[in-house]
């Protein structure tokens, strides 16, 4: 589950009242209507024009339309209503801002105008108390600072060493040739790596099974229904709460041991142990460290493994884009042999664009949400100006925006060259043309980590194996909370040495 989002992540307080039209006399009704029409004709001012509405059944509002899948709904409504429109879901107005110009305010507005806390509340029982969406913005800001400090380049270099070792040891178990489900293999490798880089050596070496089982329960405790009712007493939620408790116990012991022994490690756990709140000067409490580590794992794990799978699938299918990737690996090997580290991975631009393009077509977080605390104006690409009232949930969609044809040529086609100097379609319409990692005030803090992780995997695989996709090209699993690949992705591999082939 992403730290933040899902296909329909927003909090819906109790059902609102539905206005009874019945019993109102026809005459009064038509008079009212006439008055409304007239006033809208004569006093039409853009400062008061609300975005067009998606037609929905009264009562349950857009629930049905929304449950069929937000992307399907957006694809249907966009041609009719344009790039900004409102949809009623239960008692909530959700306003969609679809496109790089339209979503500027979404990404850049200060927290006092556009906030995350309300719409991402459902994460609280998973992450635990005292962290992220359970705390005030001032504290949350400091916690985001802990994340970004733990992920800065100096630390990242150490994490990459772990990534490389994990990948080598993982694939060494493959043998010379065989057939695997790439999806489950990469999921597994990424949780091993995340354990090592984020949760630390103790978990990776001694408690991997315990902790990954507990994370599994946390993960399963995040169901679509949990978004609406995070505390509903269902078995999945009970297991989630139990797992959360046990994780806290495990981490409390590990943290105590580290503090007592004075031994230091290169991992996110260590970074959090060493971090201090500026406002109070205090160190983080154990339960806060546990919560932030859980949040990091939720933000980074499925997102990265999904992106790895898509990248591999596209390259195996499109030989014209695989060849340049392999050539780049050959060049890199001619300089560095089979060594991989932060700087060497940084030289792999072709591989980078191949990943970025897979992620453009398949952002795992398909919908990003905020809660609007203040009216704001938005101008659409079609030239309309609307006022979005406070109290609306505001949504933008990487999955939709990343495929807009006025930004991306042949938007549904896999073409990593669209990012090359000269084309740079991802910058065509400003900073928010490419939003797989969000952007602006709350852009992903783990982006460099994610690229390092995925590059490590594919660099190692391409340098050492010939790969063939046996399954049909994968379909999108729209029903998942973090949208990924449906079914298995069977791949045949055969050991080879890239260098000697040339
Ligand atoms: C391919 C992998 C990844 C994708 C596609 C991704 C995507 C995103 C997106 C779209 C957001 C913005 C959410 C919003 O605006 O509501 C975000 C935020 C965030 N991501 Fe990632 N992410 C990835 C990997 C990671 C990793 C590996 C980590 C940490 C190790 C991470 C940590 C975070 C954090 C802490 C935030 C919150 C930033 C904030 O709200 O200020 N992400 N990510
Ligand atoms: C949703 O918008 C309508 C006007 O279009 C308004 O009457 C209603 O109060 C709004 N509901 C909420 C919860 O903001
Ligand atoms: C880890 O799991 C093993 C076996 O399932 C169990 O014996 C052990 O007590 C667990 N350790 C912790 C710290 O929970």
Automatic annotation (TrEMBL):
It is found in: Membrane. It catalyses: a 14alpha-methyl steroid + 3 reduced [NADPH--hemoprotein reductase] + 3 O2 = a Delta(14) steroid + formate + 3 oxidized [NADPH--hemoprotein reductase] + 4 H2O + 4 H(+). One of its GO terms (cellular component) is membrane. It comes from the Eukaryota. The keyword Nucleus does not apply. GO terms for biological process: methylation; sterol biosynthetic process. Keywords: Heme, Iron, Lipid biosynthesis, Lipid metabolism, Membrane, Metal-binding, Methyltransferase, Monooxygenase, Oxidoreductase, Steroid biosynthesis, Steroid metabolism, Sterol biosynthesis, Sterol metabolism, Transferase, Transmembrane, Transmembrane helix. Its EC number is 1.14.14.154. The chain crosses the membrane at residues 20-43. It holds the Pfam family p450. Heme binds at residue 444. It comes from Ceratopteris richardii. One of its GO terms (molecular function) is methyltransferase activity. It is an enzyme of class 1 (oxidoreductase). Its cofactor is heme. The keyword Transmembrane applies. InterPro entries: CYP450_sterol_14alpha_dmase, Cyt_P450, Cyt_P450_CS, Cyt_P450_E_grp-IV, Cyt_P450_sf. This is sterol 14alpha-demethylase. Belongs to the cytochrome P450 family. PROSITE patterns: CYTOCHROME_P450.
